[in-house]
Amino acid sequence: MILVTGAGGQLGSDLVEALVARHGADNVLATDLRIEPGSPVARSGARTASLDVTDAEALTTAVREHAPEAVYHLAGILSARGEQRPDLCWEVNIQGVRLVLELARIAGFRVFWPSSIAVFGPDTPRYDTPQATVTHPSTMYGITKVAGEMLAEYYARRWNVDVRSVRYPGIISWSAPPGGGTTDFAPEMFFEARRSSKYTCFVGPHTRLPMMYMPDAVKAALDLMDADASRLTVRTSYNLTAFSFSAEELAREVKARVPGFEIAYAPDYRQAIADTWPAVIDDSQARADWDWNPAFDVGAMADDMLAHLA
Length: 310
Ligand code: SER
Fold this sequence. Notes:
The protein has 310 residues and is α/β, with parallel strands linked by helices. The chain has 2 domains: 2-169 and 213-239, Rossmann fold, CATH 3.40.50.720; 171-211 and 243-280 and 296-309, UDP-galactose 4-epimerase, domain 1 (Alpha-Beta Complex), CATH 3.90.25.10. It contains 12 helices and 14 strands. The strands form 4 sheets. The chain has a 6-stranded parallel β-sheet with strand order 3-2-1-4-5-7, sandwiched between helices. Helix 1 (10-23) packs across helix 8 (214-226) and helix 9 crosses helix 12 (298-309). The chain starts with a strand and ends with a helix. The mean pLDDT is 98. Bound molecules: serine.
């Protein structure tokens, strides 16, 4: 059995489908606080259950009942929402990952857990951000991800827990909306381009961030979990990227494909978060250790997004 937490989120919505294709619907248990009827996860055919990752008893029972071979622990509160609810962000992100790792130590399952570019902060080199560099974030979300990375490494080294992680950049996808992140302007721009041919962007035109199209985000999770453990040199979390663009450059890509598309900018509190994150990430360690190689560039992503949203 493969157990997925936070399955109803942006990443889970596509990852569950890929896991079902690999392992069969009966062998994937997709959990979230609530699985919405008609959602991608509900339609995937996977088994579903309601699960709160801060509920130690419920998580322990789920592990005991289903004896998972691997847990994809995706439940988490993202950066923007985390600044509105730092208490909740701490509780969900820290308690969740600690509990999953502790259960992995006892029950022996493998773990995939996403970290983020949010582990970086204003002191980190913004261009070609190296794998090993300053992780001194200014958001609660970033703090929980740094702590999670440290915990992951600790459990791997001390208890031999096979936990694997990537620092996802912003993820762009069409099947489910993103929830509460700072990089959400990118997928939102596509949704609004199709809906109303205009978008007011919550970060300024020159905000440049690392990004990735969902098929590559899913591929990264599966490739890393497939990798030979002896090749993995990083047990905190791997830098990962596909491309970087500024909000203005993305708007140009959209305009080239959606004639008449209009963009306006009204930066809000998320600008301050974006300003502390890298613009371009160096993911050469992931390329060397487990042959990471994204398939989609910006143009191919934009074509595919708009085709699906048509
Ligand atoms: N996409 C995430 C966010 O914006 C970054 O991990 O919060």
